[in-house]
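Action item from last week, closing it out:
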Amino acid sequence: MAEPVKTLDSAPVESAPPWWHGVTSYQWLVLAVASAGWIFDAFEGQVFNITRVDMLRELVGNDPKWVKFWGDLFLAAFLAGGALGGIGFGTLADRFGRKPVMALTILFYSLFSGLTFFAGSLWHVALLRFLVALGVGGEWAVGAALVAEVFPPRARARAGAIFHGSSVAGTWIAAGAGLIVAAHWRYAYLISIAPALLLFAVQLWVKEPERWQRAEEKHAQLGSFTALFGKRRWAAHAIFGLLLAAVGLATFWSVVVAGQDLTRELLVRTGWNRPQAIEQSKIAFGFVQSVGMGLGLFSMGPFCERMGRRGAFLFMHLCAVAIVPATCYLPHSYVQLLCLLPLYGFFTGGMHAGYAIYFPELFPDHLRATGAGICFNGGRILAAPMMWVSASLKEVIDLRLAVVILSSMYLLGVGLLLFLPETKGRPLPQD
């Protein structure tokens, strides 16, 4: 009896192995070191937000006007330092290698943040926040490039999402430190010395990626701004990537962090006294909303693989436009708001992990850290004026309406995607 004819339809289909299949122990080590650096990056940013009221009351007194003025000034110094550090250390990483520059960025933010413990005047804090931000911005640019170059293509998106998503742990550490130290704000900055231990891990175990070593031999213009903006393709990627990041960073400081303010205002409206409302709003933002944001950050890897890079950004931006007014106007009790805050954090903040996935894929080996640094950290420069617009708008109209108006910037991000390429399934550029 003749055997049945086997066709493609009847042949068994082998399922694809999981994305982590074949990832080496060294690749996991690189991801762990880069993520640990980024965790403390996030800690450095959030610890100031949590401690600044107590800090400024000690340094300038209880006048709310001066507390707000100096708080905004210090935040502006941090954004400026982050932008300069991301661009400057990014180009240094392309010129001198990922390993030494990553170590230098970690040393910068751990040392100068730890020195904040001794700050005795306003100019001390302003200078130290600027120097801390140099390292914070630079570590992201170097870490994102390093992870993209070390991991295999099918695991790159997930690894990039894990790298950036790990930042939520930094937010939790900062929130926990704020609760532990209470009004004794100086002690929260002593924790910042701990990342210096990562220097030993970087020096002992991290190696320069082979891609960068080949680029060093082949290209004379490593990390060159002239090479980046002198070629139309890379210049367009840098400009529109920067604009896309500016949307995300502007909405982060005007919309995402507004979850804490929305919680406080709802509690006051429903009869809570202001001190209790302030404390509960810190918990709602620092833990409840951050859980949702963390899930969103880690989800960007699978989303980028399933929908493509542009498709994932499109999905997150449109969902953010929908969830913001729902969170602002639907809840009438604290419990109802707590149910929505995780979704609010998921869609408004989760897209940020996409930058660590997408931006390194837009640039060639000899310009990768430079290009990624310009996109992500250069976006801080354009986002900075939106902090003033956001604060001014929230002072003159209802907070909920102001946040909804500011969330319309996500639609600008949707338009920018039309000018950027899809990189899913494509090798990292070399030339």
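Closing note: Residues 264 and 278 are 6 Å apart (CA to CA).
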